[in-house]
Amino acid sequence: MKEGNGKRLFVNEVATRDGFQMESRFIPTDEKIALIHRLSALGYAKIEVTSFTSAKAIPALRDGEEVMQRIARRPGVVYTALVPNLRGAERALESRIDEFNIVMSVSETHNLSNLRMTREQSFAELAEVIALARQGGVPVNVSLSCVFGCPMEGEVPLAAVLEWIGRFAALQVQGVTLCDTTGMAFPTQVEAICKAVLARHPAMQWTAHFHNTRGMGLANTLAAVEAGVERLDMSLGGIGGCPYAPGATGNVATEDVVHMLQCMGYDTGMNLEGLLEAASVLENLVQHDLPSQVFRAGHRLTRHAPPPGFNDIAARAHARRGKELHP
Prior knowledge:
By secondary structure, this protein is α/β, with parallel strands linked by helices. It is built from 13 helices and eight strands. Strands 1-2-3-4-5-6-7-8 form an eight-stranded parallel barrel, surrounded by eight helices. Strand 5 (about 140-145), helix 7 (about 160-170) and strand 6 (about 175-180) form a beta-alpha-beta unit.
């Protein structure tokens, strides 16, 4: 495992979209905006603000336009959102979006379950979205679901992943996110796939997106970084998931990943203490415990007071030691 040696990595926050879409409690619009303002000051490269999906499909994000229009934009931060179709694209452009994040699955079964379309139908519609984005001067990122496995089909062939990436590359998208939608990835697989896609399309902006369903999220993150991926999706507190992915749990927790990478010498540009404060705010918003580990335990060098009576214990131990040395 390599030391970071100060290598710069770029952190993308997805809790305000990928996380909030899974919450049973509707987070009030003003509270969403206040959280985004707090996050904007912590060093993120990108914040996925919301989704321009229909309110019926994702009622938790029915205020997407208002949130995107009202947030204060911090220079250097990209404010992106999920854009599923042409109607969503039109709404996104009206809301002054910085980037379209479009999505489809490399698994036919998952794409039908999630988007109610075949992959070919999704691609045809997304090609029109990309054309509209180009007219509006807005860059496009493609999030490819189930790159590392489908919960209904099993293994997804690398050839299929490369084929879909190649088709989007031909449309001149800016970047591709490799999504471990249900936490099926494992480190050696991640390294192999990331190296293969980077070698095929070195000029593309590559992002890795991991869930911690089977406890391998941090290891998979390291595997992606060591393969050359510099951009990482993560979710504050570890909230999130996919409503059409059986068994999926939350994304890797932002504070857990940032803590690990900073300990290893990577430059994430992130304020870890600020992240922990933001996670406390988030826990109050969602009204349930967060999966994050670092939020509970703190930084590895967090100090704790000795147990009660420690001074007496130490004094007795030193006294015994003195008698042993000078009987």
